[in-house]
Amino acid sequence: MKAPHQYQRYIAAGGLALLVALAAVIGIVDSTTSFRVCFGALLFMICVCQLKVAADLYKHRNNLLLQLFQPGSLSLFVAAGAIASIASLLFAFSEYDATCALRQPIILTSITFMGNILIGRTWRIGSIISSTTTFASSSDEIDTLGMARLKVMNVLSTLSQVGRYYVGSCGREKIGRNSGIRRAIAFADSIFVVVVLLIPQLLLQIVNLSVPGVRMGSVEILEGVGVGHYTCESRAGPYVLIVGIVLAAMPFGISLLINVKSKGVPEKFRELDDIVASMTSSFWMLLATLPTVGMIGQTQPNARAYLLAASVLSFVLPLSYNIAQLKLQNVTSTGLARGNTNSKQGSSIQRQTKRTLSDLSSSQGQTKRTSLILKAAEETAVMGNMFGTMGFTSKALAMNQDILTLFKAEGDDFSWEAGFTLSEIYSLGPKSLEVVVKTLVGSAKLWHKIFLSNPVNEGANRMFVKCCTDALDIFEIAPAKKQLSDRSVIFPGYCFMNVIAKMMTYTPPNNMSREEFEKTLAENFVKETHYQQYHQCRALAFQADVMKRFGKYEDALSVIDEMKSIYDPQLHSRVLVKEYVTDQCSDLVAASTFWLHHFGRNDEALRLCDQVVETMLPEIESTELLTKLTILTPICRTLTNQTQTSAAKKALELYRTHVSDPVALAGGKAHPVLGMRVPIMIILKCYSSGGEAYDDLSTDVAYMLNRKDLSYPVFFETGALTRFDAAWSTICAEACLCLAKITGFNSHDESSALIKEGLKCLEESANTLEKEDGTIVNSMAHSYHSHTLSELENLSAPV
Asked: Keywords on this record (predicted)?
């Protein structure tokens, strides 16, 4: 049975008194054996206490608050300190070569590991927070210290990426693929960084142990007849020890650097003060112990061992207490460790916050209350985004719900179904409006993530649409909107709604038709982005996309012309990718090349193809293969439809250079959508060959005939339709058609099989392109389908 909290203090005090008593006994014992027994008992008790903390951290690892401080890493941190503590006992056994050889590697490696854990934890938290701090300004210039911190963080991120690339996907399956602007940073990533940083110390200590001339050994020093004592020395002198100490100290210096205060990061997630406090107490202790060790020399081995052990403990114990023990005490003392379910923990935090605000409202002014609400919302948002980035989606949603509750009327909790009342919306100030809108859009993305992991979850499907539309509605009607000079807070909501509209089935609010709703969204987005160039470009791309989606291609082309008058690829492309994940402007310009060709404006289409290839394609990172696929597919379709074979050859070379070959090099690490490239490459090879057989023709024929054995993602069909104005199955049918034309001269059986497969593909696309009432979903895609069907039927007709 667990002791009540008040008795735990007495138990701790009793344990401390026992440690002091043991230390006193050590000071008065005469014999070496008695000293070692008492000294060993003292270090053993300290080690047990540290291991108890490590075990408790692991025990409470599912606690809502403690998870944000990475209890797994903290547990390893304290355990490493425990190893260093108990290894200090080796200082008392200088007469053995083994103890002399082992004490330096064990202690220095353990301390280095502790420092590396600090770096790994801070990097993981910092990487998450730096991209999820939602309410801080990012416009300030970075000073020299901040730039140094940023460089260190980037180096650590690179190490982690190397680990993911070469070591594998350890720890990622639970989180899943993350194709957004932030990737999930798993516990395994931070541990990989820790281990890599430990390598220099490990190599040094391996050399220290394995090279006889470097290894420390026991040396007897005689002071008279029958009088002497043992000490540990190395023939290499103190140089290896000095290098080891420097390597052990460096991680703590780095951890101080990357814990430097950065704007927008809550205090509770920075450990700068804790590390400084630990270093300060260690400094004063070392100031007393190390000079004393030097003064007594080798004449008092027991005192020397005690002082050296005290030096190690002075470094280890303050860190263990300030970094780990205090966090554990905070969790257990607030009672949050009891009950590890999300709802219980979330409710506890929510009640605590609301109670504070309730007390404040009766004693402080509204301005002060609003300020504290925003501060509470900021810290909770960081915690929620950390949960989301670490893969705990439901916990991130619980945090977001707590944030939204802060802006409800007193006594009310936020409900995803009910949302906010009009009076609550009207009461929002400008900053509160930003927080509410940003939280709702973030919640929509979290609900969408839940839906993608379980597509039969209709509740999640409905909820992510509702959260997004609620954010847009609140921003539209809130009076505080007029006080916002920067309205970019709502832009991600428009973009996410566009993704939903393109890829999902949803019910628009207020009984609006989809076309009317999406048209209004696009108009509002354009209106909100006036005088903000790259945002304006993105809004116009959104508007053109909506027009295209409802078959108004000429109107879409007019909007794209307006967008091109503003859009500068060199200036805007990378900024758009950073802000919106993709550059939809270049996507739409590339897509419009095929629209122009389709409507008979072929010269314009070819000029635009050259413009995209020369000015927009170079701005795309070499690793962004999916973006290159999206941009080059409509361009290559336009080029292959030209009468000259040279145009098809140009298309093939473009596609092979920028898409096909890089995907082949990436292997299994390539995005699944890049599987679309194979039938497209087959079409390009057939056109560029002028209807003649080419080298790997048989391989391509086998690929298309065995297509039924391949597992294509279900979103290929609709994804190709929204991006390329062609159903995926129609593209496959054209690949079969092209191959059938070439093989028909040599193998009637192969040609017949390809025609049959192509017609089967067109049956799939017919279902995609026509609704049950006969309505055509996409006129351009339907025209492509009809043309391919006509050619296949003509090819299959008996001569």
From this structure: Membrane, Transmembrane, Transmembrane helix
Q: What is the pLDDT of residue 639?
A: 94
| Model pLDDT, residue 24 | 62
**What's the confidence (pLDDT) of residue 799?**
46
Single out the residue of 789, 735, 72, 757 nearest to residue 390, CA to CA: 72
Tokens of 414: 């936020």
Show the DSSP H helices in 142-238 as ranges.
Answer: 144-167, 187-210
Distance, CA of 639 to CA of 684 (rounded, Å): 9
Q: Using CA atoms, how far apart are residues 259 and 251, in angstroms rounded to an integer?
A: 12
Q: Which two tokens stand for residue 752?
A: 């017949």
Contacts by residues 316-321 (CB-CB < 8 Å, ≥ 24 positions apart): 316/81, 316/84, 316/85, 316/111, 316/114, 317/46, 317/81, 317/85, 318/277, 318/278, 318/281, 318/282, 319/77, 319/81, 319/114, 319/275, 319/278, 320/50, 320/53, 320/77, 320/78, 320/81, 321/278
Q: Which of 267, 261, 252 is nearest to 319 (CA)?
A: 252
- pLDDT at residue 224, rounded to an integer: 57
Q: How many CA atoms lie within 13 A of 169 on its CB side?
A: 10
| Integer angstrom CA distances of residue 444 from 6, 85, 396, 472, 631 | 45, 49, 12, 12, 28
Q: How many Cβ atoms are within 10 Å of 636's Cβ, its own excluded?
A: 28
What are the phi and psi torsion angles at 110 (to 5°)? -65, -45
| C-beta separation of 548 from 781 below 8 A | no
Partners of 233 in beta bridges:
217
Which residues face 217 on adjacent strands? Answer: 233
Question: Measuring CA to CA, which residue among 75, 77, 165, 627 is closest to residue 157?
Answer: 165
Residue where the block lists tokens 């991130």: 396
Q: Comparing C-alpha atoms, which of 640, 548, 645, 554 is closest to residue 587?
A: 548
**Cα distances (angstroms) measured from residue 756 to each of 366, 740, 745:** 74, 10, 17
Cβ count within 10 A of residue 409: 10
Alpha carbon distances (Å) from 204 to 98, 113, 243, 311, 563: 17, 14, 8, 22, 60
Per the DSSP assignment, residues forming a β-bridge with 220 are 230
Integer CA distances (angstroms), 540 to 535, 601, 709, in order: 9, 22, 42
What is residue 365's predicted lDDT score, i.e. its pLDDT?
60
Q: Tokens 């402080």 — which residue?
A: 364
Residue (of 41, 60, 105, 53) closest to 82 by Cα position: 53
**727 with 788: CB under 8 angstroms?**
no
- AA letter at 665: L
Contacts of 521 (CB under 8 A, 6+ apart): 472, 494, 497, 498, 501, 542, 546
Cα separation, 171 vs 370, in Å, equals 40
Q: Is-contact 545 587, C-beta < 8 A?
A: no
B/e letters for 320-358, b = 16+ CB within 10 Å, e = fewer, are bbbbbbebbeebbeeebbeeeebeebbebbbeebbeebe
CB 524 within 8 A of CB 494: yes
Main-chain dihedrals φ then ψ at residue 222, nearest 5 degrees: -95, 135
Let me know how long the chain is.
799
Of 761, 783, 765, 680, give the one whose Cα is nearest residue 718: 765
Interval 521-569: pLDDT, tens: 899 899 888 778 889 999 999 999 999 988 899 999 999 999 999 999 9
**Hey, which residues does 436 pair with through a beta bridge?**
none
Q: Which two tokens stand for residue 501?
A: 């509209």
Which residue type sits at 138?
A: S
Q: Which residues face 219 on adjacent strands?
A: 231
Across the chain, what does the average pLDDT equal?
Answer: 81
> Ramachandran region of residue 766, left (φ > 0), alpha (ψ -120 to 50) or beta?
alpha
Alpha-carbon dihedral sign for residues 291, 292, 293, 295: positive
CB 722 within 8 A of CB 672: no
